[in-house]
Amino acid sequence: MASSLWSLRHNVLSLPIFLRLLTSVWISMEYTVVDGEERGDLVLYALSTCRWCAMTKELLQSLKVKFRYVYADLLPPEEIEVAIREVERFNPAGSFPTLVINGKDAIVGYKEEEIRRIFAR
Questions:
Q1: Per-residue three-class SS string for the chain
Q2: In this structure, which CATH number among 3.40.30.10, 3.40.50.10420, 1.10.10.60, 3.60.15.10 belongs to the domain 31-119?
Q3: I need a surface site. Which of 2, 7, 22, 90 has the fewest CB within 10 A?
Q4: CA 116 and chain centroid, separation
Q5: What is the tens place of the pLDDT at every residue in 71-115?
Q6: Where are the domains of the chain?
Q7: For the segment 17-30, what is each residue's pLDDT rounded down to a tens digit?
C-alpha cells in the first residue's frame, strides 16, 4: 500500500493534496448519535455556540428522527479541517448548520419548513 501511495503521490498529486488525502483517510470524527426513527443517514454539522444549530438539532429531536451530529468548533484541530472540508462538499460557504442527507443532499441553515416537510410523519 505504501509504495502505491508513494507512486500515486509522485505521478498525480501535489504534496498538499496528498497530505490532505492521508489526513482525511486516517482521521475519523466522533459523532453523537441521537436515537429515533431511521429516515436515512442524517448528519448535522453544527457549532456549539450557534443558536440556529441548536434550533435545528432540537427540531430534529422533536421530529423523532435518528441523526448524528458533531460540533465542529469542539473538535481537535486536525479533525476541524476534516469537518470543514466535509461541510464545504455540500455547502461551499462552509456555514453552519449544515444537515447532510444520505451523503448527497444538504439543508443549509435553519429551515424549519423544509425540514418538517421532509421528515414530519
A1: CHHHHHHHHHHCCCHHHHHHHHHHHHCCCCCEEECCECCCCEEEEECCCCHHHHHHHHHHHHCCECEEEEEHHHCCHHHHHHHHHHHHHHCCCCCCCEEEECCCEEEECCCHHHHHHHHCC
A2: 3.40.30.10
A3: 2
A4: 20
A5: 999 999 889 999 999 999 999 999 999 999 999 999 999 999 999
A6: 1-28, 31-119
A7: 545 544 444 457 88
Q: Per the omega criterion (within 30 degrees of 0), is the bond before 97 cis?
A: yes
Q: In whole angstroms, what is the distance from residue 103 CA to residue 86 CA?
A: 10
- Cβ atoms of residues 57 and 46 within 8 Å: yes
Q: What is the pTM of this model?
A: 0.77
pLDDT, average across residues 52-69:
98
Percent of the chain with pLDDT over 70: 78
User: What is the rounded distance in angstroms from the CA atom of residue 7 to the CA atom of residue 14?
Assistant: 12
